[in-house]
Amino acid sequence: MKIHFSKVIWFVTAISAVLACSALQAKPQPATAAFTVFDQVHVLPMDSDQLLRNQRVLVQGDRIVAVGPAAELALPQDATVIDGAGRYLLPGLAEMHGHVPPMVDFSGMPARYLDDVLMLYLAGGVTTVRGMLGHDQQLRLKDDIASGKRLGPTLYLAGPSFNQNTVTSTEQARERVRQHKQQGWDLLKIHPGLSLEHYQAIADEAKQQGIDFAGHVPDAVGIEQAILLGSRTIDHLDGYMAALGGFDKELTAADMAPLVALSKKHNVAVVPTQALWQTIIGASDAAQLQSYDELKYMPARVIAGWQRYVQQPGGAYYSGDTAALHAQNRQRLLRALYEADVTILMGTDAPQLYSVPGLSLRRELPLMAAAGISNYDILRSGTVLVGGYFADKDQFGQVAAGQRADLLLVDGNPLEDLSVLYQPAGVMVRGQWLSRATLDSKLAEIAAARRAENQ
Q1: Order of all β-strands in the sheet with 212-215
Q2: pTM score over 0.85
Q3: Strand partners, 157
Q4: In sequence order, what are the beta bridge partners of 98?
Q5: Domain 101-389, what architecture?
Q6: Residue 63: which of 37, 31, 26, 96 has the closest Cα?
Q7: pLDDT in tens, 199-238
């Protein structure tokens, strides 16, 4: 028996009334907003390891309003119908350590670079980005995207860096935390160089102000204190490697167990960024990096900078002759964290060395799989777990009524083959549908702009 659409709307309205009692409410949708329907699609709802076959998913405005069997859920009148037959629908993915260029021209970069980066994220199926280094006017960019003035993934933004140059005293550290909270940043970005005293002041004031801090682990602080003081995420795993001596000796399960247990006990999450870090530490194959097809979407001066690093690597994280061992230890640690059920969040630190926004996931996900993470849990790391991380901001990361309509339509089952994510049949961001043809057109335009700049 088919469920009449008016009854579906009544049910969703009733549920919405219950949700209204909570502190967080989904954005109300105009009664006249058009409907988009994914029809006869196989759904990965991501609330559990299940696959719902032959479903109908109804979207109105920027919300999913109903999910049900296609044989039972009626089509709304005049809906835009997207044929999902034989295809799979899952939540859009997240970049939990990403970067977004400034809104103003910088370092001679092309004027269109910002919009290109935003589109590249979307083309890679990334509909949510946790930006990990704020710039002037970036909060306005966030608002412009949310209001529809600009097309891009939903942004949650860290403010300008907390480091040894920007933090000079405990009181100034506290004042800076208060300023970032007042200005509307979503979290605080920690960089290396902070003293333990200054880090403690930041952590204490952040707790009082109700704002997260996350990022690197300064040497003077150490991974244990970073976890105990409440860092919401440990990014790049570098703090673990420093504490364990993982740069030049093979780590054992016994070596890693205490820090893994501490991480689990204090509910810290990790954002590994394995692919980028292999390049930074010197473990990547330079010829393979240069062969990446997605480099055609990046400005020549960016590529030139990446090439210089590979030719003359260096910096605090470069491992030299022990780079291969260091990379293996990072994989061992990621496996140990996963087996202990520590929260792992998807992230690539794009755009950085050979990590092109959105498209860098095709380099990161195989390394997550090689560390022993199941396909389902890799998907969780970029969907429902990110929705949980930002549960105080919005509802997203699942295919369910009331969730933000960030969706990824693919031609195969990602539970069996993650590579189907790399060429989506289409992406929906906050209810706006971008077909494969649209994505291809945008990518071709970006590539053509890069070629023209180089002439």
Answers
A1: 187-190, 212-215, 233-235, 269-271
A2: yes
A3: 131
A4: 131
A5: Alpha-Beta Barrel (3.20)
A6: 26
A7: 999 999 999 999 999 999 999 999 999 999 999 999 999 9
C-alpha–C-alpha distance, residues 41 and 21, integer Å = 33
Cα separation, 9 vs 319, in Å, equals: 58
CA–CA separation, 236 and 195 (whole Å)? 20
55 strand-pairing partners: 41, 69
Strand partners, 131: 98, 157
Phi, psi of 282 (to 5 degrees): 95, 20
Domain ranges of the chain: 5-92+399-446, 101-389
DSSP string across 75-141? PPTT-EEEE-TT-EEEEPEEEEEE----SS--TT--TTHHHHHHHHHHHTTEEEEEESS--TTHHHH
Pair type for strands 154-157 and 126-131:
parallel
Tokens 């990965």, located at residue: 44
> Are the beta carbons of 364 and 274 closer than 8 angstroms?
yes
Sign of CA dihedral 358, 360, 363, 368: negative
Q: Which of 450, 423, 444, 445 lies closest to 435 in space, CA to CA? A: 423
The structure tokens 């506290």 sit at 174
Question: The tokens of 214 are what?
Answer: 């996350």
In this structure, CATH architecture of domain 5-92+399-446: Roll (2.30)
CA distances from residue 8 to 33, 57, 132 in whole angstroms, order as listed: 16, 12, 40
Strands (E), 158-219: 187-190, 212-215
pLDDT in tens, 37-74: 999 999 999 999 999 999 999 999 999 999 999 999 99
